[in-house]
TrEMBL record:
Swiss-Prot/TrEMBL keywords: Membrane, Transmembrane, Transmembrane helix
Residue numbers spanned by region Disordered: 1-20
Superkingdom of origin organism: Bacteria
The protein's name: DUF3592 domain-containing protein
Length: 182
């Protein structure tokens, strides 16, 4: 028997290899579809939550916002993470002195003197009173713009990956190396 002629049983081996390749291709495709589906499901939930928070923020924008001074009294740091993340706690007094908060958390950082110019919104959706927090100047309106940035990023990533994962070539009926020579 020459080297070019297939021996007995070689056809079965080739058939087994083809079946195994087909099965692995099918399993990989099912895994790919499942992964893509999970991605779009998670991004859909993120988008939905961000829209709800964004609408709540817009509705809450009409609520009164009090400005005042935060004075740090303590700091709690999470040492479990490689870089320590710290939260500042302290007292807050409104500019007119009518409202005082104790042991409130600061959304931001204090200056060298341990104080910061901050805002407090006692009413509305996701309000500061329920969350026991005051905000530095640049984050005081974050409840309005941050959810919409999140919506843009999540929808944008869905559109990007939908286009990227779309089948790039349409079937031409040609097989293997002949498909590229059309």
């Amino acid at each position: 028997m020459s080297e070019q002629e297939p021996g007995p049983g070689s056809g079965a081996k080739t058939r087994e290899q083809k079946q195994k390749r087909a099965w692995l291709g099918t399993a990989a495709r099912v895994g790919q579809i499942a992964g893509h589906s999970i991605f779009f499901l998670v991004m859909g939930v993120v988008t939905l939550v961000a829209v709800v928070l964004g609408i709540g923020g817009i509705v809450s924008a009409q609520e009164p916002q009090l400005w005042g001074t935060f004075t740090q009294t303590s700091q709690e740091c999470m040492k479990a993470v490689p870089e320590s993340r710290c939260s500042n706690f302290g007292n807050w007094v409104s500019d007119d002195g009518s409202t005082t908060l104790t042991d409130v958390r600061l959304d931001g950082t204090v200056n060298e003197g341990g104080t910061a110019r901050t805002s407090y919104r006692p009413g509305g959706f996701n309000n500061d009173e329920d969350n026991n927090i005051v905000h530095v100047e640049w984050t005081s309106s974050g409840f309005i713009w941050f959810p919409w940035i999140l919506v843009i990023l999540s929808v944008g990533s869905c559109l990007y990956y939908a286009k990227k994962w779309k089948r790039r070539t349409r079937p031409t009926g040609k097989i293997g190396r002949h498909a590229a020579q059309s």
